[in-house]
Design brief:
By secondary structure, the protein is α/β, with parallel strands linked by helices. The protein is built from 17 helices and 19 strands.
Length: 555
Amino acid sequence: MSEKQHPKNLIPVSYLNAYVYCPRRFYLEYVRGLFEDNDHTAAGRTMHKRVDSKGNEGKAVKKDIWIHRRSVVFSDNQLGITGRLDLLEETDQHPPYPVEYKKGKNPKNQPWLNDQVQLCAQGLLMAANNLPMPVFGYLYYIASKKRVEVALSTDLIETTKRIIGECRKIAESTDIPPLTDNRNKCFGCSLNAICLPEEECVLQGNKVNAKKIIPSNILEDILYVDRIGAYVSLRQGMIEVKTPDAVILAKVSLEQLREIVLCGPVQITTQALHECMKRRISVHYTNLSGRYVGSAMPMFHFNGILRESQWKTYFNERQSLYLAKAIVSAKIKNMRTVMMRYLREKNDFNDKSIFNKMISLRKQSESADSVDSLRAYEGLSARCYFENLSRFIKESRQELFLFKGRNRRPPKDPVNALLSFGYSLLSKDCTSTGTRVGFDSYCGFYHTMKYGRPSLALDIMEVFRQPIVDSTVLTCINNGVFQSNDFLSYQGVCYLNERGRKKFFTQYEMRKKDHVTHPVFNYRMSYARTIELQFRLLAKYLLGDIDTYTGFYFR
C-alpha cells in the first residue's frame, strides 16, 4: 500500500508547508538542515505523540464507522516528494482520504494555504501509490478539537504541483531566498534566531528597528559536578548525582539541562551518557585545575554546507585575514573598555598614554597585512593590559591578590588561577556553542591549527575574555568573594580548591546571564546568547548571506 522508499532528493511534504509560509525557511530547513525549537514547535511535537506513536504505523483500526491507519508513509519519484500522513481515514461511503493534525485552533475563515498545500500533496501521494485520488481531506485542529474539510480541487492540485517545482529549484540552488515581504511571519518563526532577519537588514545598511525581534534566551541550566569520586547516573528521567558512599547530592530533570560539566575524577554511567546524547546535552570534562580536557557531544551537526564554507574561507588568505582582524580589533576594544571602567572607578586617569596606546594598536591591527603582524599587535596590547591589571584591584585586596603578570600552565598565584579557570570554562562554552551551530571547532582563522586545539572556539572566545571572565574575576576580588582558603598552593602552583570552584561556577554562570546591549543591533541579551549570536553571524558571513562580520565588543 505504501512505497517505503526515501531517496535523498525527495522533498518531505512538511517542507512544502514551510515553503508557502516562507521560502527562506524552506531553504534553511531543507537545504541547510537547520532547525530550532520554540514554544510552538515543542507544543506541536507533544500533541503529535499519539499520532506518531511507534508500533502502530499503517495498522488498520476499526472505530465506529471509520477505519483508521495512522502514520502512513508514501513516496513518489515522479512527484519528487515523500510524506508521513498523520491519519488515513475511510468509511463504507468514502474511499481513503488524508487527515492532517495541527496544534492550534481552527481558523475563522478558510485554512491557511500552506496547510491546504500540505494536505493536497498527501492526496497526490495517495493517488501515486494506487489509491483513488481523494476529492477532499481534513485538517484537524487539536486545540479546538475540530476538523475542517478542504476540497482538493483542480486549482489546489495545480498550485501544489507548481509549489513542488519551485521547491525543487530552490533545493538545487546555492542562493538563499530573500527575506519574506510579510515580516510579521518572523515573530512566530522558530528559525528567527538563525535567520536573523532584522539583524541582516541592519548589516545591509537599512534603517529598521532591530529590537522588534530579539533572539531567544537560553533558559536551560548547566550542571557542574566537581566532588571527587562523585557518581552521575540516570533514574526515571532525572540526572542523579551521588557521593561514593551513595549519598544523593543533587537531582536534575533532563528537561532543564543544556550541558553537564564533570571536573576531575567524576564518573557517569553509560545510560546517562546515552540519554544526554539523545537529548543533545553535551557532557564536558575538565581536570581539577579547570583545564578543559574534552567533550562527549551528540552526533556531529549535519550542516555540512557550513563546514565546507568554513574550510574554503580558511584557505582564502584574504578572507581569513579579514576575520582575524575583526576578532583582534574587538578584543583590543574590550581590553581598553575594562581599563577605562576600573581606572575611572579608582579615579586613576593620570597616565592617559596607555589609552592612546591601545587606540593606536587597534588601528594598526585593522590595517595589518598578515596574521603574523596581527598577532604582534594583539600581543603588545595584551602586555599593556596585563601590566596595568594590578591597578584594577583594590589596595585592601592587594596582599592576597598580588598580580605581577600573566602566567599559566600552571598558574602561580590566585589571580592567575582565577583567570585560567575562567578561560577554561569559556573555551568549553565556545567549543560547545560552535559545534551546536554546525561549525568545525578545530578550523579557526586567527589561531593556528594545532592537534587538539579548538581554534575557531578560541577565535570567538578572544572577544569574550574581558566582558565575561576578566570582569567576573575583578568584581569577585574587589567585592571579597574569594578568600585565602578558596585556593590550594603547593610548590609554586596555585589552584582553586573545591570550595573555590563552587564559588566560581556560581559567579561565572551569573555573569553569563547578565544582559548587555549589543553594539550593532542595540538590543539587550544575555552574554550566553551573545556568544551564540556571534557564531550565527559568522555562519551567515561564511555562507554569503551577509557581506560583513564584526567581532563583539562592549561599551
